[in-house]
Write a structure and sequence with these properties.
Immunoglobulin-like, 26% helix, 655 residues, TIM Barrel, Rossmann fold, alpha/beta, 32 strands
């Protein structure tokens, strides 16, 4: 897989004329050279349903008079640039108006994406319809007629449907056609059939051609879905709704699946479909470096103007980011992450085991990743198929209740010497009656008071012996031999019309309802849903409490210690074939612009960064410059001081 890719959107209405009229082979090639691009995704069929080449299956755009896809592929290949062919799988608007009976339907018979045909927008197809055969024919035609280096299928995924065909399928199987669980079962079967049909359609002509099905998110805990692809692409445009927390969280799960993957961002200020929108060059530089630091190749989204002319300002922007990446590739390929901590995400538990929960609360996993990033911990995001023994500590965040099978896996890990950090309802049985892990405590139930207070029994530089408000849902636990690290203290009363005090909530009373943080042989338990609340409120005491617990569990076994500021990102990658490790240090500080948009504009270098790494190092230098780094080996710890991080710094450690 190539490191420097562009995803060139081309969703173009039939209301626009002179399609591709300004396409020029040399200008197209010059743009790719300027952008230092070595792979580009090009359109066979767009969301509007138009093909950008002659077709015997679909319909060529009515205002296109030549084979645009063929001309683009030929131009790219002549300068050594790969060409991946894109087809919109889920959307095909020109066909939707002719075959509305093939569309996904909600229970009220409305359509998805656009709810009806009075609202501007696309309508999504059900693959349990003749549309699947039509789509397979389009794929075969594209693979047969063009020298594609891969296929990208867009707008896919498991999608419950209540169209007449799906209702009939469930009735024939004796299922309640309107039951949500039955609808999900049907959706899983239909998606599997779709993925197999597309794979077979490709393999009839070019066996093994790379294939990716894009649904906007890689579902944690669904390795079966991931393996329907030859590689993975993490669509994660920070300003397009994903935010800057999404990619690190997703990447640290995907990098453990044993598949090549890339991070997909965009050149846009906001998101897809934005003509004339540009992010700051420093933002794109940072996002490319973030992919590199997490072991990913990179793809940058662009959108071609209907006239077919490449925008050179865009490719100068992309080229500035990719020129930096190009110099670093030698230290980025075939790497594996090193981590002390495994996060067993709420989403993975919901997807892998029947726990009676849904994975709709993304704040839990995002909050866990945010605290670990800010605390400079090396961590992976795992699932129950991961090798737990790799990790010194595993975090069960907020709502990871355990069934019998899950509990057995966790207990085997603990028996091998591992430790658990659990919060909220994590570690409980499915019915929330008891702990299945030994934290030296008995579970009593939910605390009726909200908020309640965290009263530590310890002190650090950041945490003093006072009452800290915890806004999230709390649990009441009774100590039974465990070491109480903090108490849970109730307020005088909950805030109601009849009882309220001051502006916001009632102060703490002298009554402790139980332990707020407790430690025993299996690890440490914190009695609040602390991670989701950190994602929502950012209360710094949550981070400080979690870091205290993690440092206690890790002890002297922490692989890296550093003074990188909280907005930094730390990773450690092992490049086994070169017998070296690469320590990545990134720093940028997103700021809020408008109401809900985070942007990066200024990159402020940070100086005097120190790292202490538990590795037997014989040589250290900065990449790609090769500048030697002074270090001291101290009892197996390589100590490096006074590093400067200007967006991204790589320290290469040869053993």
């Amino acid at each position: 897989m190539k490191f420097r890719q562009v995803h060139l959107d081309f969703h173009t209405s039939e209301c626009i004329e002179n399609i591709g009229i300004q396409f020029n082979k040399e200008q197209f090639q010059n743009a790719l050279k300027t952008g230092r691009v070595n792979s580009i995704t090009l359109f066979s069929k767009c969301h509007h349903g138009w093909s950008y080449h002659p077709t015997n299956v679909g319909k060529m755009h009515p205002h296109l008079e030549f084979d645009l896809l063929g001309a683009q592929i030929d131009a790219a290949h002549k300068i050594g640039v790969n060409s991946v062919v894109y087809l919109s799988a889920g959307l095909d608007e020109q066909l939707a108006v002719r075959h509305p009976e093939w569309l996904i339907r909600n229970k009220d018979e409305s359509t998805t994406w656009a709810p009806d045909f009075k609202t501007p927008g696309y309508h999504k197809f059900c693959m349990n319809s003749p549309y699947l055969d039509y789509l397979c024919s389009q794929v075969k035609e594209a693979v047969q007629n063009y020298d594609a280096d891969g296929i990208f299928m867009d707008i896919t995924g498991v999608a419950p449907c209540y169209c007449h065909a799906c209702l009939a399928k469930r009735r024939a199987e004796g299922l309640d056609p309107f039951d949500d669980n039955a609808a999900m079962k049907t959706a899983e079967e239909i998606y599997e059939r779709y993925a197999l049909a597309i794979r077979n359609a490709i393999d009839e002509i070019k066996p093994g051609l790379p294939l990716f099905h894009n649904g906007g998110h890689i579902r944690r805990g669904r390795r079966d879905l991931a393996k329907m692809n030859t590689h993975l692409e993490i669509e994660s445009l920070p300003t397009g709704g994903w935010g800057y927390d999404h990619f690190p969280l997703s990447a640290r799960y995907v990098q453990g699946l044993g598949m090549e993957y890339l991070g997909m961002t965009g050149k846009f200020h906001s998101s897809w479909g934005e003509f004339g929108g540009f992010k700051h060059p420093n933002a794109l530089r940072y996002e490319v470096c973030l992919s590199a630091a997490n072991g990913a190749k990179c793809s940058i989204g662009d959108q071609l103007h209907p006239n077919g002319k490449m925008d050179m300002a865009t490719y100068e922007l992309i080229g500035a980011a990719y020129s930096d990446l190009q110099k670093k590739e030698e230290w980025l390929d075939r790497v594996e992450s090193v981590a002390d901590i495994g996060v067993l995400p709420y989403e993975a538990v919901c997807n892998e085991f029947s726990t009676g929960q849904t994975a709709s609360n993304n704040d839990i996993d995002a909050g866990a990743a945010r605290i670990l990033l800010e605390g400079n911990y090396l961590f992976d995001v795992i699932d129950f198929s991961s090798d737990f023994s790799k990790y010194k500590v595993i975090i069960l965040p907020d709502c990871v209740k355990l069934n019998e099978k899950a509990a057995e896996i966790v207990k085997n890990y603990i028996a091998g010497g591992g430790k658990i950090l659990a919060t909220g309802k994590s570690g409980l049985d499915i019915d929330e009656k008891k702990f299945l892990l030994d934290f030296g405590a008995e579970y009593i139930g939910e605390n009726e008071y909200k908020p309640s207070y965290f009263m530590p029994e310890f002190e650090t530089d950041d945490i003093k012996k006072t009452a800290y408000v915890f806004y999230s849902d709390g649990e009441i636990i009774k100590p039974c031999g465990g070491e109480v690290l903090a108490k849970e203290v109730d307020p005088y009363f909950n805030r109601t019309v009849e009882h309220f005090s001051s502006h916001k909530h009632t102060p703490n009373s002298d009554h402790s309802s139980g332990a707020g943080m407790i430690k025993d042989k299996d690890g440490i338990y914190i009695a609040w849903q602390i991670f989701s609340d950190y994602a929502q409120n950012g209360n710094i005491i949550y981070k400080q409490a979690v870091c205290y617990a993690l440092d206690m569990l890790l002890g002297e076994n922490k692989t890296i210690k550093t003074n990188l500021p909280a907005q930094g990102v730390l990773t450690l990658m092992h490049q086994a074939d070169k017998n070296r490790y690469i320590c990545h240090l990134l720093y940028a500080s997103p700021v809020k612009r408008g109401k809900n948009v985070e942007v990066i504009e200024d990159i402020i270098p940070v100086h005097n960064i120190n790292v202490a790494i538990k590795l037997p190092v014989k040589n250290a230098y900065l990449a790609p410059t090769g500048e030697k780094v002074e270090f001291v080996n101290n009892n197996g710890v390589c100590e490096i001081k006074d590093i400067t991080v200007d967006c991204h710094q790589m320290i290469v450690l040869e053993l």
